[in-house]
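Risk register update: the risk that structure generation would not scale has been downgraded. Supporting records follow, first protein first.
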Amino acid sequence: MTSDPLRIDIVSDVVCPWCIIGYRQLDRAIRDSGVAVTILWHPFELNPDMPPEGQDLRAHMAEKYGSTAQESAQARDRLTRLGAELGFAFNFSDESRMVNTFRAHQLIEWAETQGRQTEMQLALFRAHFTDARDVSDMDTLAAIAGEIGLDPADAREALKTGRFAPEVRTIQRFWAEKGIRGVPAMVFDLQHLVTGAQGVETYGALLTRLSADRAG
């Protein structure tokens, strides 16, 4: 029998709407089940070649997925409804943009050294989807660090020097070599991979089963 928390590794990008949906579903399942967990976040870039200036979201969706304007609007409406059900606000607009997230992932790795990785990840989801802030901008990222109680000057220094860039690249390669090609991807107890946002009931059933297996 073990009392150690169940480990959950989440491979994610801060501009992935299904990543915050999946996390919110998982978080509700964790609270409902009462299973003790430890969550570790890992970087994934949906658009590693995104230029520094970013791209209009509708143009991006049309270019990458072939979505029509109507299909894109319907997808945003669905996400907005799902988010509201889970207590998360998606505020899509005609000005919404897709941005490069490499710096954001470096900030998350820096925050992990402060023991605040999950808080930073969630703050970046809110910044991008709720507040339409540019999470590729160094000043914005440093400000977000300050808003969750971390030192913005230290955050800026970490980003300016690129101190965590090699670590982010190493982690990205690791998960790519494990076959991760899309996000969210969650690995439960180092062995059970669940891809996509699978819903509160699915996560809850898995947590309960794994907790029973580990106790048994």
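Supporting record for the second protein:
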Amino acid sequence: MTTDPTTGPTTDPTVATADGTTSATSDSTAETRQERFERGIEVLNRVDGESGQRVIDALADVNPELGHQVVAWGFGEIYDRPGLSPRDRQLVTLGMLTALGGCEPQLDVHINAALNVGLTRDEIAEALLHTAVYCGMPKAINATFVAKKVFGERRLLKDS
């Protein structure tokens, strides 16, 4: 299958190889662009719920293709792979977003997602503490303040 930038994927029975040549493919299970998006939406809703949909909606008027790719590729292709559980994927995501820094809006979404897929408040706090060793105190503190906001919204803060 190839992709035409204006019309999306086609069912061309050849694929490009690493050396730039093409070869025949026998993959009869190839998904269309719309099918990947629909599968991605199911995963997005299951994991991120309303907060994930809000991100996609916010992109619609400025870069709808980025929103499409977040859903179709990020969730329909990558997040839905069988190699890691959704819980483990969220732990990795929290660590990466913390390490990158400046990703607080995405951390908000993914801390909610981590809670949605079964991580506890204490496990999230421990994961963010662990990031301090590898990414530094300022990034770990910033991420923890995002967690505090989410925990407060979800009434998960511990009593003082």
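Residues 58 and 67 are 9 Å apart (CA to CA). On this basis the risk owner (M.S.) recommends closing the item.
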